[in-house]
Specification:
Strand content: under 5%
Number of strands: 0
Shape: elongated
Number of helices: 7
Distance between the termini: 52 Å
């Protein structure tokens, strides 16, 4: 019995925070969970976009990647400010293994496959980000982090729409 519990805990730990929350039927409503999720999403999106600038041959994908970098640099700083203002837990300094794996997959993809993978990852990540930010904006216990989530959420939704639209364009062009 102890072994089964240990395996279940190990499996749960290996999932991204948003997936863990969905499986457990809870939101990422503690300040620590929110800070971790927000920081990891920022780090992933910046790193994935740097790879896109190097590997994509599509000017629209490259522009989208540059826009992400331009948006997430200030967003990361705004998160640091919210953490300091709200006396919240420190943000992680590295991505979790799932997001690192996603970046590694991008590094090995080529051509149109790269563009589709990058944009699909971006859309999926934003979907998770929206879920986490909506829950924290509605139910968060730290006012500074709650204000940050509320402020950032519209931009994440707009960016998701752009990622999905660009993915459709890239898919259509490769047929």
């Amino acid at each position: 019995m102890t072994r089964i519990i240990a395996l279940a805990v190990a499996a749960l730990i290996s999932l991204p925070l948003a997936a863990q929350a969905r499986m457990l039927g809870i939101g990422t409503e503690t300040p620590q969970q929110f800070v971790e999720a927000a920081a990891i999403y920022d780090m992933y999106e910046i790193e994935a976009s740097k790879v896109a600038l190097e590997r994509s041959q599509n000017p629209e994908v490259k522009k989208f990647a540059q826009d992400i970098i331009n948006t997430h640099g200030p967003r990361s700083e705004a998160l640091k400010t919210a953490i300091q203002t709200g006396a919240a837990p420190a943000a992680p300094t590295a991505m979790d293994s799932d997001h690192q794996d996603m970046v590694e997959k991008l590094r090995t993809a080529e051509g149109d496959k790269f563009d589709r993978l990058f944009l699909r990852q971006q859309a999926n990540t934003r979907e998770d980000t929206i879920e986490v930010f909506e829950r924290y904006a509605a139910n968060g216990e730290n006012p500074a982090l709650k204000a940050y989530a509320t402020q950032v959420l519209p931009n994440v939704k707009t960016s998701m729409t752009k990622a999905e639209g660009l993915l459709q364009t890239v898919r259509s062009a490769s047929k």
